[in-house]
Amino acid sequence: MSVIRTSILSLAAVLQIAGATSALAASSEADFKAAFAAAEAANKEAGALRNQWTVTAAALADAKKAAEKGDFDLATAQSKEAEALAKASIYQATSEKQAWKALEIR
Amino acid sequence: MASTIRVRATASGETTEVQALIQHPMDSGFVKDAKGEIIPPHFIRELTFEYDGKSVFVADWGAAVSKDPYVKFSFKGGKKGEDLKISWVDNQGQSDTTTAKIQ
Amino acid sequence: MNVRSAIHVASAAVFSATLALAALALTATPPATAADTIDPAADARAFQKYFTTKFPKLKLEDFVNGPYSMDEGMHRQWEEKEQFPPYEFSLDMGKELFAKPFKNGKSFADCFPNGGIGIRQNYPYFDEKEGKVVTLELALNRCREANGEAPFSYVKDEMAALTAYMAFTSRGKPFDIKIPNDPRALAAYQNGKQYFYTRRGQLNFSCATCHVQSPGERIRAEVLAPALGLLNAMPIYRSEWSGMGTISRRFTTCNSQIRGVPLEPQADEYRDLEYYLSYVSNGLPISGPGARP
Description:
The complex is a heterotrimer.
Chain A: H1 2-22, H2 29-48, H3 54-68, H4 72-99
Helix pairs in contact in A: 2-3, 2-4, 3-4
Chain B: E1 5-12, E2 15-22, E3 44-51, E4 54-60, E5 70-76, E6 83-90, E7 95-101
Antiparallel strand pairs in B: 1-2, 2-5, 3-4, 3-6, 6-7
Chain C: H1 3-27, H2 40-54, H3 72-83, H4 88-99, E1 125-127, E2 132-134, H5 136-146, H6 157-168, H7 183-197, H8 207-211, E3 218-219, E4 222-223, E5 236-238, E6 243-245, H9 247-257, H10 268-279, E7 290-292
Parallel strand pairs in C: 5-7
Antiparallel strand pairs in C: 1-2, 3-4, 5-6
């Protein structure tokens, strides 16, 4: 368990840096729309796998609210978060198709 | 309509043990419904148990008591076959009363 | 990009990373089973053995009391509560509702074997005509619709009252779920089993995470129930809900608690899940309706 935790922390450091540097430029409404569409598509795919997360829907809602207020930086960031969450839920559903067997009582 | 009060009173030796379950929403007045409107406060104000013409247990309740309250207590005295009268009044003026035989 | 959203993006990405690592760890040791043969009887034996070994002091029928068999203090409180159970009002309502005729003069008794009395332990069953699992809740609403009445909500109120009454008439009878020798029934059973062990939601829990790996332990302030006997006490008056809830309610709320969007009540997955969970508890007595913290 601790091995995984250490790995998470170092990965987090790497990913955070990656995330920060890629969004230094200000986002436009077009950026938001593209990010939001991508997030919605990913969440729809998760829905087809019957494995959507509540937090994905929340992030999408937050993104929309931010866009309505004209804060496209936040809206785009929230959309990207929603897409990441949706993709994680897709990964979960796909990998669990085999992984579940490891938990089974035998 | 069925009574809102379920009661069981058992005499053993010098004391009588009483249990009661009362059906009541006990709305505190702080909770909102699905539409976002406050559900008005609706809770029992006073609950009284009487034996032999005297109050053996009186509760002054408010918003903090949960829905469908359950009460358990014992009192000195009480004889098998005698009546125990239970009544409550709530903040909206509704009330209910019932009488049970001590077992 | 502000700090808050940066952290969010990072944490979301971290989660994918966590899953990737977890998945790698799990797939690294492939399970050595004859995965193609479905043997429910063997599963049930292994399932029951796992829990009776884990809790040697408990009798088999004790498992139906969930957390109350896991914790001494809670057990005492529950025994007192059972003298005046909070589900009584719902039970009375259920008895009345069950007997009340529909507008067309028929009633629930016309839809069920033995007039609906003492049959709860046979549900869910595999309907060979339909090719799907039928649960008690589903059967009740189908009865209503077949007789021109609107269906009830699956999660509480009337549905809880009706299933409370039907469970009550079966109290003490052991679960007797049948899996006919039909590949579709075996597939439904297997789907239910897969659902039970599959991780879902952002918290990445499966039903097994709590109810197989951690029974008797706490999740926040709650003591977890073992999966064995998990449905025997349903429907339940749950103090947390300040009211009654059905199997549908528990399945959907469990999903949202681990941050997974719940499926529709009585979705195929839930029906199959109930089929699996009931089958592996065959032999344990129906104790419903029940009360839980």
